[in-house]
Structure to design on (618 residues):
């Protein structure tokens, strides 16, 4: 007998299955997701937790006219399987394959690109209003997790959506986690609600009974729901969502497929904003992910039978975390801040050793920076560890709440540069350009672990105001045996008198060294000016490069506003008359491995060699 999943080519195909077959289909989908992620890596626990919800949504709603917006989007693998991409699921996150996140360019079933947290309600409300203004049919559903609900943008969306004049559905997928366990008042509030499911069922029964009393029931329900009287408080004991203008239903078992379909059928006909609260288990159906959902949130390829990943050991994140613990042991002013990324940024050890100086703000990068500014104003030394792609959300706060005031805030910018398979929403290619625009900020970009130690000490103790240390995902790369870092603002490596100069920073130094060795074998003399501090650029680095007949600047970040452009400006300011060539990134970067991306951008050693050889031959 064929597997049920083999009969799924579009959401319409779900209509052919009985309720019991749909439950069997859910089991098959879980197996398919586990198999795909074990080969390609990706987000596992979050996807396993929403299988029944996704099947229910596509069974109840018409996916042609109805729009489903997934917050973050890292849990949309089942959605992809059900919307015509099942045969390509094994290409997920691979070069040329389907994205690990919703993508409008990939499918008409993906109405809005997502990759960052807390955007779904705002985006869905915009789509719903567009439908209303254009007179188009269909419902709009936003699916948001309790972790994403810790982000301020979600409340801006809820505040606005509560006044919407039509049906608008928000599904709160509550699994008690983002990546790590959720923290803060909202997490405690949802925990309180979870303890009262019986109470909310009674409330729902009362409402339902009133609505079915001929002539007077619905008016009474309406008056009670609008009333500010003690009777309303006694009967309703409103949730925060109802106070914001939503009808609240739940909490319900998010793995009870039949119940979910029944609830969705009922609420899609309510002419009012609705919030459905469901409870799910992250990692559902795979033992290792259920036992350790944090570790299986985002994983590299792994062995399905043992749950063990091939990737382990020391990396920039863990080295940073260990070094911060060493510094904090000697300095009680040091505090560590994360925006729900404790494990990913290497802060788990710090959280255990110094719990009173460790702060998890939830998915709230803007708050994290301003909070850090407050800590600094109060005499502490805050370190905010954050992925480059998420630091983008804090641009205003870095300017207004830190840089202008010259408070001592240190940014540990993880996943700087190309990150690989998570794709265009997660590449860390913009931090240099936007930090470059802010006065009085110092930025370091180490290539190796020992440089990270030194640069971080400089940032923490010798820089006034805001300082950032940015470093890539993963391990340190190739290091020539004859290279020794001076730990100063820049280093020079290679033929000191060569007329061809490569200027670069960070991880690309490793590729530049390989290119230099090959060029030297081909009779092309080169030297490398390695920038360790990329803002401000040391005048000595510009002066050293100035003597070169050809200067090639390679940058693992956007060209416009980047270090390369500024380096060229400084050269021209000093009346440089040689040949300057800049190669950086000029567009959003799709998903592929780090090596494949750098190759496609011409930023690996082969690409550097080709550019230099071609230019010299002109």
């Amino acid at each position: 007998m064929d597997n049920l999943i083999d009969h799924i080519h579009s959401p319409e195909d779900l209509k052919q299955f009985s309720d019991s077959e749909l439950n069997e289909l859910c089991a098959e989908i879980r197996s398919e997701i586990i198999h795909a992620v074990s080969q390609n890596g990706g987000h596992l626990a979050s996807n396993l937790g929403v299988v029944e919800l996704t099947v229910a949504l596509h069974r109840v709603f018409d996916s042609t006219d109805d729009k489903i917006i997934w917050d973050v989007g890292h849990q949309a693998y089942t959605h992809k399987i059900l919307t015509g991409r099942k045969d390509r699921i094994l290409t997920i996150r691979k070069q040329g394959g389907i994205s690990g996140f919703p993508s409008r360019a990939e499918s008409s079933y993906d109405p809005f690109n997502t990759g960052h947290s807390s955007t779904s309600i705002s985006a869905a409300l915009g789509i719903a209003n567009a439908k209303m203004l254009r007179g188009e049919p269909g419902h709009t559903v936003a699916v948001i997790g309790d972790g994403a609900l810790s982000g301020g943008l979600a409340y801006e969306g809820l505040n606005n959506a509560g006044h919407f004049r039509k049906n608008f559905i928000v599904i709160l997928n509550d699994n008690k986690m983002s990546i790590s366990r959720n923290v803060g008042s909202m997490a405690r509030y949802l925990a309180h609600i979870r303890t009262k499911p019986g109470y909310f069922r009674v409330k729902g029964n009362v409402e339902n009974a009133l609505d079915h009393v001929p002539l007077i029931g619905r008016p009474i329900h309406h008056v009670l729901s609008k009333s500010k009287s003690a009777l309303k408080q006694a009967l309703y004991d409103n949730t925060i969502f109802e106070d914001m203008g939503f009808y609240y239903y739940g909490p319900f078992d998010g793995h009870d497929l039949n119940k979910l379909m029944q609830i969705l059928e009922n609420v899609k006909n309510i002419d009012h904003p609705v919030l459905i609260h469901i409870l799910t288990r992250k990692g559902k159906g795979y033992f290792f992910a259920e036992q350790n959902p944090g570790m299986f949130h985002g994983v590299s390829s792994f062995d399905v039978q043992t749950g063990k990943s091939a990737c382990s050991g020391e990396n920039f994140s863990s080295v940073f975390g260990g070094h911060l613990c060493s510094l904090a042991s000697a300095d009680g002013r040091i505090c560590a801040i994360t925006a729900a990324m404790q494990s990913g940024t290497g802060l788990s050890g710090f959280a255990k050793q110094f719990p009173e100086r460790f702060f998890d703000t939830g998915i709230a990068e803007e708050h994290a920076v301003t909070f850090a500014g407050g800590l600094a104003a109060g005499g502490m030394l805050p370190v905010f560890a954050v992925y480059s792609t998420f630091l983008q959300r804090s641009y205003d706060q870095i300017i207004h709440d830190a840089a202008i005031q010259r408070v001592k805030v240190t940014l540990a910018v993880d996943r700087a540069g190309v990150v690989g398979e998570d794709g265009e929403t997660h590449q860390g290619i913009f931090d240099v350009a936007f930090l470059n625009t802010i006065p009085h900020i110092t930025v370091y970009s180490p290539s190796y672990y020992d440089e990270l130690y030194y640069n971080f000490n400089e940032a923490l103790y010798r820089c006034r105001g805001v300082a950032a240390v940015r470093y890539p995902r993963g391990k340190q790369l190739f290091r020539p045996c004859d290279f020794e870092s001076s730990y100063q603002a820049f280093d020079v490596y290679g033929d000191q008198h060569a007329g061809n100069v490569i200027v670069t920073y960070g991880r690309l130094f490793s590729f530049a060294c390989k290119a230099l060795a090959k060029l030297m074998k081909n009779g092309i003399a080169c030297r490398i000016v390695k920038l360790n501090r990329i803002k401000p650029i040391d005048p000595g680095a510009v002066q050293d490069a100035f003597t070169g007949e050809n200067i090639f600047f390679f940058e693992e970040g956007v060209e416009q506003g980047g270090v390369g452009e500024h380096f060229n400006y400084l050269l021209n300011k000093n009346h440089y008359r040689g040949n300057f060539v800049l190669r950086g990134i000029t567009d959003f970067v799709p998903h592929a491995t780090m090596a494949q991306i750098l190759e496609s951008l011409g930023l690996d050693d082969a690409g550097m060699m080709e550019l230099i050889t071609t230019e010299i031959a002109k």
The chain has 25 helices and 19 strands. The longest strand covers residues 550-558. The chain has three domains: 4-289+294-299, 316-470, 490-617.
